[in-house]
Amino acid sequence: MVPRAYPAPSDPTTTAVPQHSRPASPTRRTTTAVLQHTVRAPTRTEPRLPWTSKLGQVRRWRRLPIQPLHTLVLYWRIKPNHERELTAEAGFPSFSSVRPHYVYSTPSLEHPGMIKINYHGGPPCDPDGHGLVSGGVDAVERVARWIDEFMPGRVETASGPVERVPCMYSMTPDEDFVIDFLGDFGQDMVIGAGFSGHEFKMGPAVGSILAEMAMDGEARTVAEAGVELGHLRINRFDGNPMGNAKDL
Fold first, then answer.
1. Within a 13 Å sphere around the CA of 174, how many CA atoms are in the beta-carbon half?
2. 80, 105, 173, 202: most buried, per Cβ within 10 A?
3. CA gap 108, 86 in Å, rounded
4. Where are the domain boundaries for CATH 3.50.50.60 in the chain?
């Protein structure tokens, strides 16, 4: 995401972005896994999510404490006559519950008659591995017990979720993002990673921040709004492997 639109170049695999005041190598290229194309620019941006730690090893960056987790997106059947009350139109909220398990949900939206209720977490995994579709039995059982206790009579749990979609988190120890310039590269490399299961809903804001950092050398919009990004810097792990860890 960039804050302004620019004409598309003739090469369909690239997107041109303007040069800023810092000198740049003409051979520097930015690869973004999210956009699935290559961007020629003076600043490299790396939003590679679960692959961040591996990428750091290959490119000899400092190792970031980011652990990929295998998780599941679960869709459950709503019991008859309760479909409307679990929609946003009826006032049903997005929510999270941290005890006894970290469970979260959004109103019934994507699939009529179903609601997404998930367990926040999962076992460590290799993002290049296989078998992500399997597993997750513990998560399903935890969510089913939570539903029966806190939403009795509204959601069908006896037959399990209707749909299980494999997903990955890129977890930091404190579950806060990493948004920063990358070490020895000065302001020529920006990293956004470790979103810990929250990247989708934060995507537009994070994309704007990373674009401003890459193009202007600073995140001006959030600075003008009085938002401090210091607690998202990589150096929060210096001498403290848990970073901004909280006791939930």
1. 17
2. 105
3. 6
4. 19-65+174-234
| CATH tag, 19-65+174-234 | 3.50.50.60
Q: What is the pLDDT of residue 52?
A: 56
d(CA 109, CA 178): 30
Q: Position of tokens 């990293």?
A: 191
**Every domain range in the chain assigned CATH 3.30.9.10:** 69-168
Pair of tokens at residue 166: 């494999």
Homologous superfamily (CATH) for 69-168: D-Amino Acid Oxidase, subunit A, domain 2 (3.30.9.10)
Closest CA to 165 of 195, 203, 122: 122
> Quick check: 47 and 151 in contact, CB under 8 A?
no
For 151-167, the pLDDT digits (tens) are 999 999 999 999 998 88
Q: Exposure of 84 by Cβ count < 10 A (0-12 exposed, 13-18 middle, 19+ buried)? A: exposed
What is the pLDDT at residue 21? 34
Rounded Cα–Cα distance for residues 103 and 108 (Å): 16
Count other C-beta atoms under 10 Å from residue 137's C-beta. Answer: 10
For residue 111, which of 75, 81, 86 has the smallest C-alpha distance? 75
pTM of the model: 0.67
Contacts of 20-27 with CB under 8 Å at 24 or more apart are 20/215, 20/216, 20/217, 22/187, 22/188, 22/217, 24/188
Return the pLDDT at 156.
Answer: 98
Contacts of 26 (CB under 8 A, 6+ apart): none
